[in-house]
Amino acid sequence: MAAGNELIYALPKKHDYGIGIIGAGGIVNAAHLPAYRKAGLNVVAICDINETAVGLTAKRWEISDYYTDYRKLLARTDIHIIDIAIPNEGRVEIVREAVATGKHVLIQKPFAYKHEQALEMVQLARAAGVKLAVNQNARFAPFYNVTKQIIDSGVLGELYLITHEMRINQDAVMGDTWFAKVPHFLIVDYDIHHIDLMRFWSGMTPERVFTSTTRMPGQNFASDMIALTTMEFANGLRGSLMTVDTTQSDDHFWRFTIEGTKGSLYGSIEDNYKFPKIKYSSKDKPDQWISPYIKGDWFSDAFYGTMFELMNAIQEDREPSISGKDNINTLNTMHSIIRSIEEKQVVAVMDC
Ligand SMILES: NC(=O)c1ccc[n+]([C@@H]2O[C@H](COP(=O)([O-])OP(=O)(O)OC[C@H]3O[C@@H](n4cnc5c(N)ncnc54)[C@H](O)[C@@H]3O)[C@@H](O)[C@H]2O)c1
């Protein structure tokens, strides 16, 4: 773990962009604002339709200006980046108006439930000449990001199998929130992280998917909360996701394995986000495992990671690695998974 306030990602050369946040809910308070404070970023104002929530959040994080109408936030010329962290409804309108004022946008996952909405937001940003990044923060969660660096170093060779397993229980703690009513919640809201990770790690979008889901008798969520997904990639790579969000045990964990032609990597986060561990070995020395020290935590280091990536993309005038355009492939995979569940068959992932 990173000690104290040590940043695990390098501060962008310019990092004093004025940030305006839309949404003062759970994730903004738990992760966005702690991350931005740790990185010393310039949060200028915040907006939420819930006056109590936005007032309390502004007070807690010492943000001098807050609004209940996002247009007041968009009207400010000292805000350069809009950080959207609201549920799906209303996002397209906000993005349309934000990019029209020349502001760049970071938007929470899932980028959009509907393909047309995602496409429209990408086109709006492109036409306005601003950057649009999707807050797929798992890519910047330290244990997942270090794994990507190990893959990219070539030490594992060509990848042919990736597995990811998660066991937690949001059904117990979020059963009375709006999340519990979202159709296919487990896929669109949680597995979207793992779907995107598979693309991040492999550098590819799967060609075909098959997903089977089930539910715990008596569970709270409308959505099935157990999902088993198989992914087929072009070059023989296979991926597997096992996501269980109803476990009745108190042993909550994330575990993943990666097999390549030159080596193997095993990763785990045990006991409720604690003890992240990665180890890998090569076929030349299969008994010698290397365990890199993993600095930092998903909450909140990953959340300045995504913001830094957007800031770097702005000043280098390039697409963010987490661009809306790239994310359309993550959404296509998500939609194919939903079709697979509904039609009980293997589904080809739409190419674009
Ligand atoms: N790891 C992660 O990246 C992560 C974790 C949790 C949530 N999320 C995502 O973040 C988003 C928000 O989740 P949350 O847990 O903070 O939800 P939440 O319900 O706690 O907060 C959402 C807030 O948005 C406000 N809001 C809704 N519509 C608005 C609008 N048009 N204008 C201004 N404010 C509006 C609501 O009043 C509420 O305060 C969701 O898309 C969720 O999937 C991401």
Can you walk through the features of this model?
A nine-stranded mixed sheet has the order 14-13-12-11-7-10-9-8-15. The chain has two domains: 18-130, NAD(P)-binding Rossmann-like Domain (Rossmann fold); 139-297 and 331-348, Dihydrodipicolinate Reductase, domain 2 (2-Layer Sandwich), CATH 3.30.360.10. The mean pLDDT is 96. It contains ten helices and 15 strands. It has helices at residues 26-39, 51-60, 70-74, 91-100, 115-128, 142-153, 170-173, 185-202, 298-316, 324-343; strands at 18-22, 42-47, 65-67, 81-84, 104-108, 132-135, 159-167, 208-214, 226-232, 238-244, 253-260, 263-270, 274-282, 285-290, 347-348. The protein starts with 17 loop residues before the first strand and ends with a strand. It is globular and about 55 Å long. The longest helix has 20 residues, at 324-343. The protein is an alpha/beta fold and 352 residues long. The structure holds nicotinamide-adenine-dinucleotide (NAD). Nicotinamide-adenine-dinucleotide binds at residues 22-28, 47-50, 53, 70, 85-87, 90, 108-109, 135, 137, 178, 189.
Features:
single chain, 352 residues, alpha/beta, Rossmann fold, Dihydrodipicolinate Reductase, domain 2, six-stranded parallel β-sheet, 10 helices, 15 strands, 26% strand, globular, binds nicotinamide-adenine-dinucleotide, nucleotide binding
- Give the class from helix and strand content and strand pairing: alpha/beta
Low-confidence parts: none
Annotation, overall tally of beta strands: 15
CA radius of gyration: 20 Å
CATH architecture of the largest domain: 2-Layer Sandwich
Structural domains: how many: 2
Helix content: 25-40%
Sketch the major β-sheet: 9 strands, mixed
| Broad shape | globular
CATH superfamily annotation of the largest domain: Dihydrodipicolinate Reductase, domain 2
CATH domain class of the largest domain: Alpha Beta
Task: Give, in order, the helices and strands.
Answer: EHEHEHEHEHEHEHHEEEEEEEHHE
User: What is the number of helices?
Assistant: 10
Domain GFO/IDH/MocA-like oxidoreductase: 147-265
Keywords: Oxidoreductase
Family: Belongs to the Gfo/Idh/MocA family.
Domain Gfo/Idh/MocA-like oxidoreductase N-terminal: 19-135
